[in-house]
Design goal:
The protein has 185 residues and is α+β, with helices and mostly antiparallel strands. Helix content is 19%, strand content 36%. The strands form 3 sheets. The protein has a 5-stranded antiparallel sheet with strand order 10-9-8-7-11, with no helix packed on it. Strands 2-5-1-6 form a 4-stranded antiparallel sheet, covered by helices on one side. Strands 3-4 form a two-stranded antiparallel ribbon. A hairpin with a 5-residue loop joins β3 and β4.
Amino acid sequence: MSIEEAKWYVIHTYSGYEAMVKDSLEKLIENNNLQENIFEIQIPMEETLEEKANGKKKVVERKKFPCYVFLKMIYSNDIWYLVTNTRGVTGFVGPQGRPLPLTDEEVVRMGLGEDHSVVDLKEGDEVQILSGPLESFTGKVLSVNEAAKKILVNVTMFGRSTDVEVEFFQVKKINVSVEESETKI
């Protein structure tokens, strides 16, 4: 068995139990030597812009999918039994509580796992933010972090120039018009 055979599965948890379930599953993996069967556990998070009572805005991190934990694993009946009997787990997402693996498209759309796409961005490029609290904002790329798959972008927000960190999949490069490119030559 190898990680190439592993697929992403979704488990449903009680509300607010996601972190506890993740910790319990990590202990389960360690105690039962399941490193060859369960490779990764994720609770996808996203940054959102929240307005406080005093009118100030603050960026906070929230769960993208409350009540769900994602597992990259090789499915077996034994694994199913161990995972579904973990405290806080209500079951796998799938028909009759039997796991249904996510498709490759769903994995990319949910921001799970490795994205092997090559990003054609460099410092100074203009980008548009496609998702998250700053959706539809445009800005200039300040730096590209290939290892973390993140980009530092300078946007103008509420009349102020602000640097924000976004993930590769959250931005698209804005094509420079022919006139602008001619003036740069």
